[in-house]
Amino acid sequence: MIKEAIVLLMFFGSPLSLQEYTVRDGLSECLKAKRTIERNVKSPHAREYTGTMRLACKKLEVEVDEENRIIRFIDDVDKVLGLERR
């Protein structure tokens, strides 16, 4: 089934590439999960995370299976996030 959904996207590596993604129940739930991840990956001695991971909550058109797992992206994720290579 193709639908528009809020998706939590996790990019990391060098160069940054999309590694994980999940459909969330809404924007507030996605932002809550994003904050939780950001809090848990930073060093206890650092005020902020300084690594190469990037998290984003975006409304995207995706194809999902019966268990709401993403099969494929209909939208071009790089274009939506402004990560297109020139």
Summarize the structure.
With 86 residues, the protein is an alpha+beta fold. 23% of the residues lie in helices and 40% in strands. The chain has one domain (2-81).
Strand order in the largest sheet = 2-1-3-4
Largest sheet: 4 strands, antiparallel
Order of SSEs, N→C?
EEHEEH
Q: What sort of overall outline do the alpha carbons produce when their principal axes are compared?
A: globular
Helix fraction, binned, reads 10-25%
Q: Helix count, per DSSP? A: 2
Rg, rounded, reads 14 Å
Poorly predicted tracts of residues: none
The count of DSSP E runs of length 2 or more, i.e. the number of strands, is: 4
Give the integer mean of the pLDDT values.
85
Residues in β-strands, percent: 35-45%
Would you tell me the structural class of the helices and strands?
alpha+beta
Write a structural description:
The chain has 86 residues and is an alpha+beta fold. The chain has one domain (2-81). The chain has two helices and four strands. The protein has helices spanning 27-41, 77-81, and strands at 2-12, 17-24, 54-64, 70-73.
